[in-house]
Amino acid sequence: MFCHEQREEYLEKQVESLTQNLRESTEQHERAQENFDQITLQHVQELKVLQERLPVAEADLLLARNRIAGLEHGNKLLLRLVAALEPRCKLQVQELENRISSIQNLERTVSEMDSAFKNVAHEAEVGKQESLAQIAALQLEAQRLEELNQEATLRIEALGLALEKSNQLNEEFVQHFNSVMARQPDEVVAGMTVDQKMLFFKALLRSPDDLIMRLEEKDLLSHTVLSLRYATCLFLREIRSKSANFDSWIDTIIEALGCAPEDLVKVLLGYMKDSGRTANFSAMDRDAPLWHFLKREMEQCNVLVDLNSFDKLKEGDEFLYLKLVGSESEGNSSFEGDGLSPVGNMEVETELKGELFIGPRSDRSSSEAEVLRSVIEDVPQGQRPVRSANKTGHRQSSAARETAAVRREEDYIVKKYGLFDMAELRGVKGFSIEDTVAMIGAIIDFKAESDYHCDLSIRPRLNMVKVVRLYIKQRCNKRDASETELRSLCRSVLNFQGRHGLVRIFGVICGMIDTSHWTERSACFFMEMLKGIKSLDDPGAESEDPDTLAEGWCLYRTWLNDPEHLVKRENFIQGLETACTGMFGFGLMTNLSESLDKMCSATNHNSVPDNPNVFYLHTALAVGIDLWLSQLDESREKLKAMFVQNDINGDQELQMDEFIQLIKSTGYKMRQHDAMNMFHELAGPDDTVDQDEFSELVVFMKFNIKAILGEA
């Protein structure tokens, strides 16, 4: 009996001990729950702290599970004790079961909260990635806007420079005009060609007496108009002195000009007005030769129209505006000379009291102004031999038209691609040849650094024109100074292009000379060729990590500035082939070695005497660019031939769907959206692509010409 009581007492102590342990465990779990709630709130507020403390929560969860396992084991023991002590422990066992149930609920709650926290963390990571992508897109857009702003700034600066050049041109013209005023009339007239004399006639007709003062007040070309009028009046004075009567004046003009001018009617009408003769043609004898000549010319021009039918004449017609004063039905048609002026180069200013008042255009063409300027500058002091052959005049006119066409094409390319204006460099002082070569080497280093950072950030490379402008802008603090520096560089390129191979290469890849061969691709090809040759010629430089270089690279300038530097023939050929097979080339050149020998002998690009396997560096680079330009022309011709083959309807132009079909037929894999963008870049104002525009694919560095031509 005593043992039984001791055992019961022992069991009661064990139950109390277990109960105490259970209370402590419950309190610990309650404290853990409070801590967990605090951690949960802290995790919601700070995601990063949550991610760092998630392992701690998982450890707590594992500990809780271990404790739950221990409690389950204790529960089994308690069940045995309850079975033995059922009357006394039933209430305690029920309490333990309730506590276990609450612990299980707590475990489920912790598990659900853990899953929720993981979902929140995943959503936060996705949102972070989306935000980073949006930030990157905004940065690219900001960079694009910055480039557009820089281009607009450069255009504004160019316009300001053009205005300054125009003012300078006017000042120079005044000086030349003053020098002409001191000459004898015969000396001035003797230096005129047929085309120049006709320009003087037109200038005289554009400047009637009642417009001279107005032009002096507002027209920038007032001095030009005055000087042209002076020279024209001198010529008219000479013609009048040779003419005994008015009718024979026609033959005198034809003899002086060497041909019958198309604007003879206009000249005669202007002469009648200047000489004070009556402008009423009805008073002229109908049998006079002059009347028949005028009547025939006016009938051919269809100018016998009434003022009310003015809308029948279109702007650009090389006719006269004549005011019909009388009535043809009465057989007494008469004409007034006031207001008679050529239509083609005139603008109707106003209409007063029924009189047609016509004034001169202010936008005189630059080519015509240059011809007139050359006359004032180059009139010889002595008598010039008389040229009366009609064919000579026609040859001059044809040559002038060809020259003007070439100039218009060059101007078009310069404006289209934003190249440097090399036409207005008169009076600009260039650098020495040593300073020019040094600056070119620095610009090439700047280009290499720019290409590296653009490739690193997956941005398109800058073309050479933008690189030069940015380098000059960083070199000079003030805008005026940078513009002066740029003009001096352009002048230096023109001065030394024939004396130094590197200067000529720089002029070609920058579009300063040989404008028809300018492409974005040429500069990239040259940089790849330069890199390939230097890596073979100076292998140690290749191991230098670009990331370790400070701002303002110095990779090529020292190498390029050495006029006596030699490269092996095999290194040059290998570097050239590397560039040809690169992303900017057109593939390997056929018969490269033979072409190299042929070009060297034809252009006097001589290798080192007594050693044909070694070239001077500048000679090698110049030959490489010449071979590249030949391959560039071949690729243009291949593209033109491809255009002709795919121009099925023969209309010599491609619509967008035809263009996309052509690109697909080449096997070149391109998304249709990219092909549409390519079409818009090449298309002209009529939204079609012609043969020449299609061949401009070679201009842009981003188009894979090798793949389009099937040579990849």
UniProtKB/TrEMBL annotation:
Region (Disordered): 382-403
Composition skew (Polar residues), residue ranges: 389-398
An example Gene Ontology molecular-function term: calcium ion binding
EF-hand domain segment(s): 634-669
Coiled coil feature spans: 8-42, 128-162
Gene3D superfamilies: EF-hand
Keywords: Calcium, Coiled coil
Protein name, as recorded: EF-hand domain-containing protein
